[in-house]
Every structure is written in C-alpha cells, then in structure tokens.
Amino acid sequence: MDLSDSVLDHLRSVAALPDLTDTRYEIESEIGRGGLGVVYRAHDRELDRPVALKVLDSALAGEAQLIAGLEHPAIVPIYETGTLPDSRAFYAMKLVTGARLDHYLAGSPSLSDRLRILRRVGEALGFAHSRGVIHRDLKPQNVMVGEFGEVYLMDWGVEAVTGTPAFRAPDSHLDQRSDIYALGAMLEFMLPASAAPALRAIARKAKSIDPAARYPDAPALLADLERFQTGLAVEAWREPLSYRLRRFGSRNAVLLWLLAAYAGVKFLLFFLRNL
Questions:
Q1: Of 50, 111, 149, 217, which is most buried, counting CB atoms within 10 Å of its CB?
Q2: In 45-192, where do the E strands start and end?
C-alpha cells in the first residue's frame, strides 16, 4: 500500500518523538528545533502545568547543568534534568509565552522600551559572567519578551557553539568580551533609524574589533546607557559643542527659563525707570 507524503511525514515525526515513558511529562507539540536539540511544549502530570522540554544529545547535557546554576529573573528557571532511554538528555523549564525580540521589534516599541529590554539582557549577562558563564550565542532570536513585559535570555550555548555570524565577535577565543560584542550588535539591531549618535557610539564601542577597546563588562555598557538616559555625556562618544549645548539646554530648561524671565524683568524695570 502506497502512503501519501503527508502520512509519511507524520509517521517520521512520531517516530522521532522522545520516549518519556519513565518521566512525568507528556509531549503536546513541538515549539522549535536547532543544531543543539528540539524544544517541545509538554504537560507536567505531577504539578498539572505546562513546561518547555528540551531534548538534546547526551554529549551536550552540560548545557542543563550550566543554566540550572544561573538563578536570575531574566534567565529561564530549570525545573528538572534527566536522561531518556535512548541516552539523550532532557531538561524541563518554565514555558515562556510572548514574542521573540526580533518579532517584538516589528511592533515599533518606544526607544525607552527597547533600552529597557537591552538593560534586562545586559543584567542577566553580567550576572552570568560573574558566575564564570558566557552565553556564546547572544542574538534577538534568543531573547523572549513575555506577555507582561518580562525579558528572558534563552538558549545558553556550550563549547560547541560559535555564535551567529551577524552577532559573533571576530575573536579567536570566546570569553566575556565576546558576549559584550554581541550585546553591542544587538543594541545596534534594536535601535530605530532616528536613534541618537550617542547610542550608536555605545554600540560601536561594544563592537570594537580589538576586545581591549570594548567595554570591560556588561555593567560598564549599561552605565553608559544610563548616562545617555539621564542626559549626561556618554564615554563612548566625543560629542560636538552643538550637542553639548543642546544637552545642557534640555537638562536645564527650567533654570534657563527662570534666568530669561529674571533678565526680562530687570530690563523692563530699567526701561521704566528711564522713561
């Protein structure tokens, strides 16, 4: 009996499903797949809740241990790790609902919202670096924005991961500053066309070809963003005098108006006295 292509595709997908017989999970659907494994939406029978279940080659099982040791609001928590009958590893984690960052940006969020998201990513990155962990594959596709504005940095890489070309540092050896390069590339990707030169300068500094010329760590980059948002000069950009005057006027608008009013009153009184 000949089987249609659709039936054959269905049989192949069923045959490829992981055997979860000895676990508490039931697969509901596939969420996505990549070079390191497949992520499924699954149901946790014991706690009666949905979870994301990632199945990957046993040689990459260290990824689960790596992420499980990172407890941070912007890093997805791991609930359980284990090994399947076919020797593949799996881990169950919080099921994040929302939009990938690249899709979220299609909705044209405000600049302040874009910078808020980048700040959350940078904070998670800084925390991981303080624990001796680097991401290795930082890009918009690995950031999720939740339904209520939560931000999650996903898919932490392992030794086998070299990153995505558009966001990968040209370094022969990956370390924390390689992640800083990727964070700068992501900032550049997130900025609207009308973004201030100072913001683009921050992205360029983070993306310096020479790792020593980049920000030394994520907090340093975030501090420059903070300076921009509070109306201060950023370290990454030697701004022209016209920008300095404009920034001074913006930060001191009330004072300048008061001085102008005072000068106006003094002139009026002088004029009246000399009539």
A1: 217
A2: 49-56, 78-83, 89-94, 98-100, 143-146, 151-153
